[in-house]
Amino acid sequence: MTSTTDPHTESFRLSMLIYDTRYRSTTIQVVALIGFLILIGWLISNTAQNLQDLGKEPSFRFLFEPAGYDINQRLIEYTSRSSHLRAAFVGLLNTLLVAVMGCALATVLGVLIGVLRLSKNWLVSKIMTVYVEMFRNVPVLLWIVLFMAVLIETLPAPSAFRGDDPESTMKLFESVALTNRGIYVPEPLFSRSLGDVHLFGQSALNFDVSLNLLAIVAVLVAGVFVSGRIRDRADAIQNRTGVRPTTWYLRLGVVFVPLIILLVALGFHLGYPELKGFNFGGGTHMRNSLIALWLALSLYTAAFVAEIVRAGIMAVSHGQTEAAAALGLRPRRIMGLVVLPQALRVIIPPLISQYLNLTKNSSLAIAVGYMDITGTLMGVTLNQTGRELETVLLGMLIYLTISLCISLVMNWYNNRVSLVER
Amino acid sequence: MKKSVFLGALTVAGLSAGAAAAGTLDDVKARGTLNCGVTTGLVGFAAPDANGVWEGFDVGVCRAVAAAVLGDSTAVEFVPTTGKTRFTALASGEIDMLARNTTWTFSRDVDLKFEFTGVNYYDGQGFMVPSGLGVSSAKELDGATVCIQTGTTTELNLADYFRSNNMNYEPVPIETNAEAQQQYLAGACDVYTTDRSGLAATRAAFEAPGDHTILPETISKEPLGPLVRHGDHEWGDVVRWTLNALIVAEELGVTSANITDMASSAGDNPEINRLLGTEGNLGEMLGLEADWAVKAISAGGNYGELFERHIGESTPIGLARGLNAQWKDGGLLYAPPFR
């Protein structure tokens, strides 16, 4: 005689939402969510209402009107008759330019300094410590302004290069002019140019891509690829026979010979900067604002990257180094083959944050008059059109997109180098 | 910068409707001080002196309004603004009025929703170059590097001028007058361009003003004047007529020296009587006391006195009255009648 007692089934009552622990947490979350949404809704409707009262309904039509102002550094064709959208695009490219240059230099310097900070040489490691502490403990804005002031105050004006007995002369075989308006370096020119390919037709975002550049990149990529195959083949032969064939001249040859042939075919030559009127003409002009911003952002971020690299290296167990040494590897190879690859796993995630920081810090560009997206869209355009809300929202959206793209790429890389656990 | 603009935008959204509805005049009276937006420092127009007291031609307008409304010309909170921040500051209600050599343009008046209450200086954009450069006309500036204050009408005028004359130039955008001065003096730009009055004021602050020339061309009309938010007409009237009172006082010969006598009893000239409140009720119409104009004029003198003291020919800035003379003397200053 066994009798099973049915579990006591209870009908659902409203009070259970509060008193029953099974439902309580959900209830609280739903209430909080509703409250949050109401707050957001209120903010939006309040803003919309007040803008309407002011007679400034949100509108993005201003983007298609002529901007009316000039921009000094433009990577694509732009005149003061171009639209505000085009100006924003010019600014965006300037932001990307300094961000890419900054991230590259910060990484190189950061890795170097991080490794040197662990050096057994007392002097070297102390100098690196001083560097790190000095750069990361002063706000980056001050570094930017300082670099700009140094460039402006110490370098000669272009007028100093004028006359029969000039105060200043061009450096490096008369090819580079260092002035307080920027650095003029020789520019690559092609006498038998392939021309440009025009993308996006007549829209506001159209731009030209140099076919010469594309051809050079294609030849380089192909050369490196072939060189890789030669290395693979050498590896295979070494594995099979134990003797590694000498391939360095072949590998150099497949990269450089086609490149040189292409450059000669295109009629490659350098255009040197020359004093013309008020300024230097010809050559590539790297403006002071770009240099100051680039150096300040890179050196500042390099201090953080150095610490991240140091932490990553120290996270690799010392046993690894000893084991590699026991195998007979030299210190430089231990670092390159054993320690750094393992350290990368620790280094990459915080490094992403530093890249994002550098990109966002580039919005301080206006301090030195570098026309990035903050200077064009959220600076002059905002001021001339009075569209605060629209321009700032658009600007935030653009920074968000850039940052998410950087994160995406870096996360992909992180997944590639991370430890595959089974 | 991004953050402050965004906060500004939010404040525009949050505050402006309320501020406009409540009435700036009542707000100022209740607060007991006037928040007046000025430049971050342009000698002669608005700059703190050695003791940190703001002084200048634009500052004089602020003080006159404060005196008219509050009876105390020192009850002013000066808020330094840059070319970029000034409009956000005004629209958001951070300042009650802006007296910052701001050009009266159609789009600022109509689209940006401000109200210009008159012109206190008729100006035009000019160019300053080092004399050693050997340039005597703006037409010779092809290829020059030009320093400009960003967020101003000068930026647009400059682009138009060089474009219409088929000349190239390299713009160097700069946030404040002080930075522009530093870059210009270091030779990082060949030319500095802004309103001619601003050039004269900047040059006066140089160690060797004689080494710099202001080129003869004036490439634009720049009527500079105080402005308030659109929609608050009561407050707009107070600022407009305070400025007019200063101008008409000069026309009628009322100065800070003789105003106490003139205001003590009604005189022979009915317009002076109405202005000084010894006759009629103009002050009441504005929502102010009967002697509002007396206080405004006593604060720093009439228009001519303000001009002479801060930017006139006896000062280092040395501007001639030119267009800014009274209409009787061939200038453009013409205050509507007080009746």
Provide an overview of this structure.
- The complex is a heterodimer of chains A (422) and B (339).
- Chain A is mostly helical.
- Chain A is globular and about 95 Å long.
- The model of chain A has no long low-confidence stretch (mean pLDDT 88).
- Chain A has a domain at 16-53.
- In chain A, the strands form 4 sheets. Chain A has a 3-stranded antiparallel sheet. In chain A, strands 3-6 form a two-stranded antiparallel sheet. Chain A has a two-stranded antiparallel ribbon with strand order 4-5.
- Chain A has helices at residues 16-19, 21-53, 84-117, 122-136, 140-154, 171-174, 211-241, 248-266, 288-315, 318-326, 331-361, 373-385, 388-417, and strands spanning 177-179, 182-185, 187-190, 196-199, 207-210, 268-271, 274-276, 279-281, 284-287.
- Chain B has 2 domains: 9-122 and 224-329, D-Maltodextrin-Binding Protein, domain 2 (3-Layer(aba) Sandwich); 125-220, D-Maltodextrin-Binding Protein, domain 2.
- Chain B has helices spanning 2-22, 24-31, 57-70, 86-91, 106-110, 153-164, 177-185, 196-204, 233-252, 259-264, 270-276, 282-286, 292-300, 303-310, and strands spanning 34-38, 47-48, 54-55, 76-80, 97-98, 114-116, 121-123, 125-130, 144-149, 169-174, 191-195, 212-214, 222-224, 227-229.
- In chain B, the strands form 5 sheets. In chain B, strands 10-9-11-8-12 form a 5-stranded mixed sheet, with helices on both faces.
- The model of chain B is unreliable at 1-21 (pLDDT under 50).
- Classes of the chains: A mainly alpha (422), B alpha/beta (339).
- Chains A and B meet through helix 2, helix 5, helix 12 and helix 13 of A and helix 1, helix 4, helix 6 and strand 10 of B.
